[in-house]
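Exercise: predict the fold of this chain.
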Amino acid sequence: MQAILYCDKQTDCIPVRDCPEALLPLCNLSLIEYLLHYIEQKGFQKAILLAADDRVRHLTETLDFKIPIQYARSLASLHADMPTLLLRRLCVPDWDMGELFSLSRETPVRLFHADSSPTFAELHPQGSVLLEPEATVTTELSYFRQIRTPAEYRTIQQNLLSSSGKLRRNRIGEGTKIPVSAVIDDMTVIGNDCIIGENAKLEGCCLGGGVQIGADTVLKDCVICRKALIDAGMHLENAAVPENTVLYPDSGTAKNRKHLVSQEDGICEGLPKWNTAETALKAGSALTVLSSRIAVGYSHKNSESLAAAAIAGAVAHGASVWSAGECALSQLIYLAGLTDCDILLWIQGEKIMQLRPFNAGGFPLTEQQANRVWQALEADTCRHVPQSGSLHHAESLHALWAESCRKLLSAPEFDITVSCANTALRTMAQELFSGGTGQRITLSLSEDGTKITAFSSESGMLRHEQLLLLSLLSFREQNQPLAVPAEFHLSAEEFAAQYHGKIIRVHDFQDSGAEIYKAQGICTDGIKLFCHVLRVLHEKHLTPSQAAALLPELCTVQHEVSTSLTRQSIAQLCASNPDARISILMPPHSKLVKLRVHADSVETAAELCGFWEKKLRILESEES
C-alpha cells in the first residue's frame, strides 16, 4: 500500500501561525515526521507528499526513512498503481492495517468515524482514478485524529505523552530555561527557547517556541502560542493565548487583541480565526458603516448562532437584513441581487468559522472599505445602539435560484454525479442535474459553490477556468461578452478571438463591466456555470472530449508566502520585474503575500512561484 499526504494546509495558530500543518510540533517532533515514521512502521511501500512547500521538503529530505519519499504538485499526475491511502488532511494516526487492507480491495471509499464525522481519508484500490469516492464506510478499528482547536491539540499531545516514552523525552525543547523552583508536570510540552519564571506552575499545558512565563504564574490546561508573554502572577485555566500576545494580571486580557478585516481573509478576533458570538455581533454592527441593506448566510448548521449574532448587531444599527439561512456563497450572491443588498456576510466553516464580507456581486471589499470596517470594530460600535432595523427571512428565495438554473438547462443527457462538502448545496445540485442516462460526468463543487471542475473518463479533468471559457460560446450566441475577473488567465482573449467572442475583465464592483459580471453570475456560481456548459454541449452537439479539444490548457496557482516586506517594497519589485504571468496581492493588515501565477501546467506554475518567492527572500535580506 502507498500513502498520499496533502501538505498544503496552513495552521491556525495552534500553537504557531502561518506555518504548514505538516510542521506543527507534536512533543517537539513535527507532525509530518511523526506520520511518516508511523507509515514506515506499518509496512507501507511508498509515501507521496502533495503540495509540500520548501520548508516541508527540506525537513523530510534531512530525515532517514527506509521507504521512498516522493513529491508531487497535484493528484492529476498520480495513479493508484497499488492500494492507496489518500489523506486530504494530515492526522495523528491510530490505524488497524487489516481493516484498511480489507476496505481497499473493492471500490474507492471515503472513511468516516463512528460518530459520522469525516476522517478526510480515502482508500483507493489498485487501478482506480484518484477522484473523491462516492461510497462511504465507517471505520471500526482505525482512527484519524485531526488537530482543529487548541483543546484538541492539547488533548492529543497528552495522549501521546501517556503512550510513548520517546515523545516524553522530547517534551522540553532546546534552549528552554526552567528554574529549579518551577513545577512542570509530565503532561506539559514546552517548545524551543522558552523562559519559565521562578515558582511558576504548569499543568497539562502546551507552549510554543519563544514563550515567556513570568514568576508565580499558574497555568492549567492552556495552549500558549509562539512568542507570547504571560506576566508574573497570572492564573489561567483552559485558555488559548494567541501568538505574540502580552497578558498582564491587571486586565487578564491580551493587550494587542483587536479585530482584523482584510479583503480575502474575512473578519477575525485577534490572530486566530476562532470566532465567537461577540465577534459576530460586532462584525454585523460594523458592516452597517458600508450599507443599510445586508444579506447574511452560512455554510454549516454549526454557524447558525454566529449568523444570528451578526444579524442582531446589524439590525440594532438600523440595517435591513435578509437572512438566507444555510446556503452556499454563490446562492447568497444571487439572493443579494434579488433583495438589492449592497453588502454580504457569509460565514464559512464547521469547526473553525470565518466571517467573510463581500460587496454586491461577490466582489471582495476594497481596501478603503476594509479600513472603515476595521475602524468601526476598533470603536466597539455595537455598544451604541442608535435605532432598530428590520429582519427579513430569505430562505424561500432559494427556490428562485434553483428555478433560474433550471431555465438554463436542456433535456438531461449526461449521468451527472455531484461532489461537494456543502451538504445542502450538493443535494440541490444533484436534484437539478438528475435524469440523464448518457456518459458519466463527475462535477466537483467548492464548499462556497463558486468554483467547479468536471471529470469524465473520456475527456479527463476540465478545470474551472476551462469551463468558464467554454461558457463563452453560450454568451456569444446571445451577442454578449464574457465578463471575468481581472486576474483571469491571460489566454482568454486569444480563445475569444478564435471563436469571435469578447472578454471583459472586471477589477471591482465599480467597473463598467461589473453589471454584466453580476448579471451573468457564472464567476460566482459554479452550478450556473455548469448549466451554461451543458447548454453549449447540447447546442453544439459536442461530447466532453470534443469540448476539451477546443480548450487551451489553463492553470492558475495561488501560493502564500509570509514576509516582512512592506507593500511599497513589493510594488517596486513588481514594477522593476514586469511579468504578465504573475500577480502579487498583499491583503491589508496581513504579513501574507499571495502569489497568483498563470501557466499551461501545474509544474510550470509551481516553478514560477518558487522563482518569485526567492526574489522576495532576496529583497528581504537586502532590506534587513
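Check your answer against the key: The chain has five domains: 2-145, 170-247, 262-398, 408-550, 555-623.
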